[in-house]
Task: inverse folding
């Protein structure tokens, strides 16, 4: 699911992101600015905000004893533009998920630049084979179809 978030960001797939991101999402950008789900999606969809590439690597997953909450840490390599301002770097993303019915929803997302890593430091091949996206997103057919398309 965490890799699917990055793919949906690149494709500006609002439907998939709405399926995964909680309505009450709190997102802290790498710049330190905190936004909600609506603002995040609004800014993502602006044509002047682009990605040349965006590649995610899951570093750690911690599941609660009850298996209803999870904290995921990942590294993201990204390059693009925010308006007229180009950016490139490696970022640490920490995401807090809660299980709501059969679906996992991201409620808190913390993004920070990793100054100590260069864009070429993360080279691990990415694979979605270990994720059970269908089980995690049963109530959102568009997300299921999207993930099936990017994993085949």
Result:
């Amino acid at each position: 699911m965490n890799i699917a978030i990055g793919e949906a960001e690149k494709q500006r797939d609002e439907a998939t992101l709405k399926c995964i991101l909680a309505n009450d999402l709190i997102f802290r950008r790498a710049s330190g600015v905190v936004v909600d789900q609506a603002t995040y999606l609004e800014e993502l969809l602006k044509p002047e905000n682009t990605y040349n590439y965006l590649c995610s690597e899951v570093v750690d997953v911690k599941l609660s004893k009850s298996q209803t909450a999870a904290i995921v840490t990942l590294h993201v390599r990204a390059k693009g533009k925010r308006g007229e301002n180009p950016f490139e770097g490696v970022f640490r993303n920490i995401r807090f998920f809660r299980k709501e019915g059969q679906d996992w929803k991201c409620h808190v997302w913390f993004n920070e630049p990793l100054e100590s890593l260069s864009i070429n430091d993360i080279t691990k091949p990415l694979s979605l084979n270990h994720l059970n996206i269908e089980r995690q997103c049963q109530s959102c057919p568009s997300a299921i179809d999207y993930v099936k398309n990017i994993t085949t």
User: Anything to note?
Assistant: Residues 51 and 80 are 4 Å apart (CA to CA). Confidence is low (pLDDT under 50) at residues 122-152.
